[in-house]
Specification:
single chain, 191 residues, mainly beta, five-stranded mixed beta sheet, 17 strands
Length: 191
């Protein structure tokens, strides 16, 4: 919203840094009480010139196409909310990677061509269809124990990805999951 209740855009110009507050609502208000932010909706930042996003650890779901076509997106961070809605998040509180989401929408980070590094949270059992497709600058990908399925085209076109270590929990890698990963020379499966 424009008042910063749901997200804040800084660097106010062509590219932005997005900080999603850990809470929304109003303190001491019975109609709209202060509560944790739990999800990012479908197409929330679709096509925006976002260069970094900081998400509170309370986020458990990210909708379809939420950050698709955010061509400038280079960094995704998680933080532990210790501030009230609208207050600044300091770099010291940021951790690299996505929060421990349980659901990630189809093509949530599709065509994020500037993203270089990514850790999938262990809480995400399925990497959905086209989730990170066309993230052509992605060079480092960590898929931890707990992830069981990589759906069709999830990493399609991640041309800079040199290789991958899959956890022993993987049960299914669907068609075209790594199609177009031109630099990939190996995929290892943990025992």
């Amino acid at each position: 919203s424009k008042d910063g209740t749901y997200y804040t855009l800084t660097d106010g110009g062509y590219s932005a840094v997005v900080v999603v507050p850990g809470t929304h609502g109003k303190e001491n208000d019975t109609v709209t009480p202060l509560r944790p932010v739990k999800a990012i909706g479908e197409r929330a930042f679709y096509g925006r010139n976002v260069k970094a996003v900081s998400l509170p650890e309370s986020i458990v779901g990210i909708g379809d196409l939420s950050f698709a076509y955010c061509n400038s997106l280079k960094e995704i961070h998680t933080y532990t909310p210790e501030t009230k809605a609208g207050e600044a998040v300091t770099p010291a509180t940021l951790r690299p990677g996505l929060p421990e989401v349980k659901t990630l929408g189809m093509a949530a980070f599709y065509h994020c061509i500037s993203l270089k590094s990514l850790t999938i949270p262990a809480t995400l059992g399925t990497v959905p269809k086209l989730a990170f497709a066309q993230a052509e600058s992605l060079e480092t990908l960590n898929i931890p124990e707990g992830v069981m399925t990589i759906e069709e085209g999830a990493f399609f076109g991640c041309a800079s990805l040199p290789g991958l270590q899959l956890p022993a929990t993987i049960l299914s890698v669907e068609n075209f999951a790594f199609l177009g990963c031109e630099k990939m020379t190996f995929i290892k499966m943990a025992a």
